[in-house]
């Protein structure tokens, strides 16, 4: 018995792979790369087009109305068709994916296991997938406008779905009644989501009207609506990030050695410790 106790104490000296964190990523770091960086990049692309693509913009006209010129380019061209803005945006999409995937795992953990947690995972996954697709298959790509519009609709639907789940779960779990800060941010998120839906619907109506009636006013509303959608989406998830940061500090990245390899490695150093090490590994 005494020998067994000594063995257990002796085992504690060994660092079992996977038991100690090897890398830490703070929520602020993840939030910047997953939300702030893409939003900044989108607006940098939009603003820079007025300088790098000034000649094209000055002659830009509606697709079905070549005689109607617009001083505002739609986002689909600013970040999808024109260079170097296209490369800048795709870089932002690629860079933001790892951080976004980690955050999408942390947010639903505040809720209990169940269908709503799975729905939260599904919404964020579809949103990330459709954002990538709508960026790859831009409006002038070989796939055509219809494919671009379909993926944009998928992205919009997944975004609204994710927003709705966040607001719904905070209400039904009573989280908003336990913390005044969460209640205030919940109200702000509700307003943002409502505005997001209204602006999105207005934008989707304005575009076909602009093409059918050759209306510069409707097309301007469409362009401004696209810019606003990006802002509202970034604002909503920035608030969510601030809320989650109150519960989570970040992620610890751990490299885990297989149980078999760990037993072989440490038992060769001291064969009498093999059983104790195996029990310790199984706890992890």
TrEMBL record:
GO terms for cellular component: endoplasmic reticulum membrane; Golgi membrane. Residues 33-243 form the CWH43-like N-terminal domain. GO terms for biological process: GPI anchor biosynthetic process. The chain crosses the membrane at residues 30-51, 115-139, 145-165, 186-210, 216-242. Keywords: Membrane, Transmembrane, Transmembrane helix. The keyword Glycoprotein does not apply. It holds the Pfam family Frag1. The keyword Transferase does not apply. This is CWH43-like N-terminal domain-containing protein. It comes from Pristionchus mayeri.
